[in-house]
Known about the structure:
Phosphorylase Kinase, domain 1; alpha+beta; three-stranded antiparallel β-sheet; 13% strand
Amino acid sequence: MQSRLPFDDVAWEKSDNVYFKWRAELLKQDNLREIAMFVAKYHHGTPSAVRTPLTGAYNVVVVIDFREGGSTLIRFPKPGKVMFPEEKVRNEVAIMRYIEAHTSIPVPFILHWGTKDQSPCGLGPFIIMEYVDHACDISDALNTPGRPHEERPVLDPSVDQAKPRKLYGQIADVLLQISTLSFSKIGSLTQVDEQTRTMAARPLASNMNHTAWNFTTLEATCRRCNIRDLFFIPHHTRKSTPPSFNLSTYLFRKLSLEGKLSDPEHDSGPFKLWCDDLRPANFLVNSNYELVAVIDWEFTYSAPVEFSVSPPWWLLIEQPEYWPDGIDEWVTAYEPRLQTFLTVLREREDALVQAGRLEDQHRLSPKMQKSWDSGDFWVAYAARKSFAFDAIFWKHLDARFFEPMARLDRSAWERRAELLDDEERMQMEDFVHRKLDESKIRVLAWEPAE
């Protein structure tokens, strides 16, 4: 079974075309000069140089150097790659200011932000913030030496343990501070005025770049995010979707409806801050590997506590579904790194508890160990990862909640389908037939306004 569903090549091409057209406008020299002068109004200086724009997965960054010293950057969401750009920017500004006010986590200072209508050259919503000098990010620091830049980073298997321990300790401090922030409901922060922010908006998650969904508890997350993803697929031009995916989604929904995917005591909160995109590349360090900034807080929202007590998936840098040798080999490589991380996390917890800066109830290490041992890690991971969902379900969730099967084949799936009621089976069959019909014409549902 493939570790992840294939991407939609028609949608990908459409997305690329939108982005390349926008990038061509950005790179025009007149536009770069206008951007520099626009940023100068908030940096209060004279631009001396505009650096080559930097491109990430979701954003493009333009750094402007100033004659008087210092640098400032302006960051735009990538059209065609970000489906809700103005909402993303608005939410990120609110959460960065909240973190700055309620923790000691170093985040870049925001000088100004605005909508597309307020942007230079009409390039889109933007954030202007201080540029933080740094040597590298933690992903670069731990990446396998000599690995080509165009390849996805992977933890250096022979790394000196002193390096990850030092870096893990600083990441642990950040995670522990985030874990103390509690909210009464799930959602994204909205800035009412300069002093007031409330959790009033829908939770904007990274998965929403593929589909849109809302949730109120982990059970609702499990019901909504994947079922809504399921019904998003008719607007997807993928030629085929594995029959196992349709069945696994309904089985996952069945488990959630029966209350088997979470602890009921957590359903009413408190809910914890969660960032879908928080990973080593977000942590900037100096030449001594000391943390100087944590960046890219998009897709941050208050979420089910099961998310925040899951151990970090990024200890190997690479995600399970992208691991070259498969998910089983990812687990084998991951477990010793997890124990190293949990050891460092316990040390930081002990120090903070002794200093009176952390209460015992806010320790994460025992909760993360329990999440991994119980398999709850995979429940939360599957709920957040539509394209990896099918493989995760059959490899880590099916046997846990249902009778183990010797092999996954058509007869096994037929036996699993018998666990669904008549209405669920009929819905699933109708969906499969609809997908087969639509695969013949491959019409893409594209929302240009997004």
